[in-house]
């Protein structure tokens, strides 16, 4: 029976769950600690690869946007400060974001290290992150740079069409509907997301390159940047990442 505090005793947990968790912990215990940063433009495949890396190396995935929202929702001291800034329409300061990352990496799930996604976006943020990690006796081990030609990204993204009510998605080149612009099942028209147009993508990519180039240069000096050929099929990119991380 579960105790009155609401926590179940171990006897109530099915053996298979205990065994699975035990095996996971044994597998994780032998993995080296890793602190990774993923950098890549929208559509470069970071979202496909990060869960694979996370599971393979027992890391926690830190997406700064999600962490900020979680800290605000949990009303942590830093979350309260962040909310004050957001309510005023101000940007959350670098120190606050690094503080929230600092809190997050102390959780048990981040024991073996983390994957940082969406941060650092500036050299100053990278320096503050390095200082914070240094205090913990840690450092960034690798920066995985998902490099891909803008023209390929444009083809990947501007070719996406969606059937709004079902969420079915098509691609003019890679998964076209039977009739152009029409959903296969209902015969209703397909739409393109606002963000998936060439004009929006162009401005997003320009902003991305301008902002992240200095960050990539900063880590390149430390010789920890690995350029991945992100236009390859996902399976090949996964293999490339595994080679890099096992060396």
TrEMBL record:
InterPro entries: Adenyl_kin_sub (IPR006259), Adenylat/UMP-CMP_kin (IPR000850), Adenylat_kinase_CS (IPR033690), Adenylate_kinase_lid-dom (IPR007862), P-loop_NTPase (IPR027417). Its EC number is 2.7.4.3. One of its GO terms (cellular component) is cytoplasm. It catalyses: AMP + ATP = 2 ADP. It is an enzyme of class 2 (transferase). PROSITE patterns: ADENYLATE_KINASE (PS00113). GO terms for molecular function: AMP kinase activity; ATP binding. The keyword Nucleotide-binding applies. Signal peptide: none annotated. Residues 160-195 form the Adenylate kinase active site lid domain. The keyword Kinase applies. Catalyzes the reversible transfer of the terminal phosphate group between ATP and AMP. Plays an important role in cellular energy homeostasis and in adenine nucleotide metabolism. Monomer. This is adenylate kinase.
């Amino acid at each position: 029976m579960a105790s009155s505090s609401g926590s179940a005793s171990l006897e109530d947990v099915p053996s298979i769950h205990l065994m699975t968790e035990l095996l996971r912990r044994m597998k994780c215990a032998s993995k080296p600690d890793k602190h990774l940063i993923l950098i890549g433009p929208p559509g470069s495949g970071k979202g496909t690869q990060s869960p694979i890396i996370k599971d393979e190396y027992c890391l926690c995935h830190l997406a700064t946007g999600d962490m900020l929202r979680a800290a605000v929702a949990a009303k942590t001291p830093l979350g309260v400060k962040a909310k004050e800034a957001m309510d005023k329409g101000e940007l959350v300061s670098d120190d606050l974001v690094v503080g929230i990352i600092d809190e997050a990496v102390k959780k048990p799930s981040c024991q073996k290290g983390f994957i940082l996604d969406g941060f650092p976006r500036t050299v100053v943020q990278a320096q503050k992150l390095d200082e914070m990690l240094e205090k913990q006796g840690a450092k960034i081990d690798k920066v995985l740079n998902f490099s891909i030609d803008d023209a390929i990204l444009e083809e990947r993204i501007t070719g996406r069409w969606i059937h709004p009510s079902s969420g079915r998605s098509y691609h003019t080149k890679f998964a076209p509907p039977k009739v152009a612009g029409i959903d296969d099942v209902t015969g209703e028209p397909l739409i393109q997301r606002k963000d998936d147009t060439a004009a929006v993508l162009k401005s997003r990519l320009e902003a991305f390159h301008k902002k992240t180039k200095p960050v990539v240069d900063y880590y390149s000096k430390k010789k920890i940047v690995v350029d991945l050929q992100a236009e390859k099929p996902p399976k090949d990119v996964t293999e490339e990442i595994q080679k890099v991380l096992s060396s």
